Amino acid sequence: MGDRETSNHSEVTDFILVGFRVRPELHLLLFLLFLLVYTMILLGNIGMMAIIITDPRLNTPMYFFLGNLSFIDFFYSSVIAPKAMINFWSESKSISFAGCVTQFFLFAFFIVTEGFLLAAMAYDRFIAICNPLLYSVQMSARLCVQLVAGSYFCGCISSVLQTSMTFTLSFCASRTIDHFYCDTRPLERISCSDLFIYKMVSFSLTSVIMLPTIIVIIVSYMYIVSAVLKISSTEGRKKAFSTCSSHLGVVSVLYGAVFFMYLTPDRFPELSKVASLCYTLVTPMLNPLIYSLRNKDVKDSLKKILEKKNIIL
Fold first, then answer.
1. Model pTM?
2. Which of 26, 43, 142, 312 qualifies as a cystine partner to 22, CB 3.0-4.6 A?
């Protein structure tokens, strides 16, 4: 039995990404929609990184984390969007086995890294509001680098484990992935391996990854809310909350979309694709908008850059 499964597994050289099950005449509309969103992702996240790098006033822990968030959003959307857009015009809609493994690994790496980075950003806001006098000491450059490096390390380890587990399954049932990218649940559906142990290990791994980040975010905001409510002036409370609202918005959009996608029953694959679309493309598009529209420092920096360009012109 093991030899037969190995043989079946080795025969798979490529997969077919079904994408969205819509009428062919809608492919152009979807392509243009993906192109518009991806262009906004590129402009927003590259622009955010450029602003943070070029403006010395933004040389703070919060913007160091934000720059890395933009870097991650730019790359993990780039893992998904170009291939999805190509497939709107492709007859075969195929992706090689190696390409599927690479896409799966990179997306898992960046999305897990983002989860840990958002937890680090929540801790940063906790220190800034609950212990402002010691903020520069506690959030030292060394600690910030360690938190970011730790986020990437955890993302890498998680992705290696998840990818190796998923692609040692036997895919003899079908080559057709009912999704627009290589993801866990669609790959499970086309596997003819016994998935009980795989699902148990995968669930445990997901819990180990998600629970610590969620706990750090929730506990940090519990302390933040408690500290803000103790501020006597309305203006002071408003200012304190405004420093956290952007981060809270980003966390809500990302985790809301992820939970919605994984809680969607398998019998509704199209709904699952829409939820996946939210956190693969919509979230990376919204993140720079949320931070730029609600952040005075970023708006001032952007205004200065635009004024300089006008002077040059």
1. 0.89
2. 26
